[in-house]
Design a protein that fits this description.
Elements (H helix, E strand, L loop, with lengths): L7 E12 L2 E12 L3 E5 L6 H8 L7 E6 L2 E2 L4 H7 E4 L11 H11 L4 H14 L15 H13 L5 E5 L7 H18 L2 E6 L2 H7 L2 E6 L2 E6 L1 H8 L3 E5 L3 H10 L4 E3 L4 E5 L4 H13 L6 E5 L3 H9 L11
Parallel strand pairs: 3-8, 3-9, 6-7, 7-8
Antiparallel strand pairs: 1-2, 1-4, 4-5, 9-10, 11-13, 11-14, 12-13
Helix pairs in contact: 3-4, 3-5, 5-6, 8-11
Length: 320
């Protein structure tokens, strides 16, 4: 385990989990600094939920060592549970209770002092923009409102580490971005650590300080979003010409990756930095070639994922 474990919210070494002959996790190592967002990225069934369940003491690993918030998940699971909050793929909201009643129930379960319970509920309703719906049954809430209430319920006990398992699955784009803003505030304002599992590449890119890619039970890459993008490569520049003769001339002159004769479009390697773009345009100008359209594609997490895993078929992770 890492020697600086005191500064780590999560430290895991050689974690393994199998169901019968099917190995779900095959030697996973994790070091997640406190006060950061860590995203575990992978397709449906890759083992992301299994990792989250092991870290949050819901299931046991077959082998390996895990510490969360400084506590060993096997030797001191109660201390781990006292320090974490978990928001799973399926809502824990009671549809028959109002939003306020759901939060008050969680305050009771967390044994908050009686004088603090109503104030804590009111603060969270305000933080998650649910004040107007506080006295309405949760059954009347939209999907985005239910997810916000679900996360608010997780925060009642002021956890130091929050596990968000596919937190925006099924949400529309606006609700998804609202959830992203809330997660960012949790880290910057509250100083919590967020462990995020997701299959949304954009979500990991937007939120995570560090990303790990899980494929066939192993972590095949780990780093910041920018580090992984640089590792993937794949940047290119697309040029479209209105004049077919200019298009043919440019195709002979440039280092072409691909071409489309129907649209007079060329794709050439490049990362789109200002210096190389200026040099390219100067070269075309000297050749009296006019570009009708120029587009720059920089590597993104899609490139990272497919470069590392190919075009993955959804793997089946046994339900437990």
């Amino acid at each position: 385990m890492a020697t600086d474990a005191a500064r780590l919210a999560v430290a895991a070494s050689a974690v393994r989990k199998a169901y019968g002959g099917h190995v779900v996790l095959d030697g996973i190592d994790l070091d997640i600094p406190a006060g950061s967002v860590f995203a575990l990225l992978g397709p449906n069934g890759a083992g992301k939920t299994t990792v989250a369940k092991i870290l949050s003491t819901l299931i046991s690993a077959d082998a390996g060592e895990v510490r969360v918030a400084g506590h060993d998940v096997v030797r001191d699971p109660d201390a781990v549970r006292a320090a974490i909050g978990v928001t799973g793929q399926f809502s824990a909201v009671d549809s028959f209770l109002t939003g306020e009643e759901n939060l008050m129930l969680m305050a009771d379960l967390n044994r908050l002092p009686r004088g603090e319970r109503r104030q804590r509920a009111a603060d969270l309703l305000a933080c998650f923009d649910l004040v107007d719906a506080a006295r309405k049954p949760a059954a009347m809430y939209s999907g985005g409102m239910r997810r916000r209430l679900d996360l608010a319920m997780t925060l009642v006990g002021r956890p130091r580490v929050i596990f968000l398992d596919e937190p925006t699955t099924g949400l529309d784009p606006r609700s998804r971005r609202t959830m992203w803003e809330i997660v960012r505030r949790l880290v910057t304002d509250e100083g919590v650590t967020v462990f995020l599992t997701t299959q949304y590449l954009e979500e990991a890119d937007q939120l995570a300080d560090k990303i790990a890619v899980l494929h066939q039970g192993q972590l095949v890459a780990e780093g910041s979003p920018e580090e992984l993008k640089r590792r993937a490569g794949g940047g290119h520049i697309t040029l479209r010409f209105a004049d077919p003769r200019g298009y043919d001339h440019a195709a002979r002159m440039l280092d072409v990756v691909s071409r489309n004769d129907e649209t007079c479009t060329l794709q050439i390697p490049g990362h789109g930095d200002v210096r190389s773009l200026r040099a390219l345009l100067d070269r075309l100008d000297r050749a009296s070639l006019t570009v009708d359209e120029l587009r720059v594609h920089t590597p993104d997490l899609d490139d990272v994922f497919f470069a590392l895993t190919g075009n993955p078929v959804t793997e089946q992770e046994p339900a437990r």
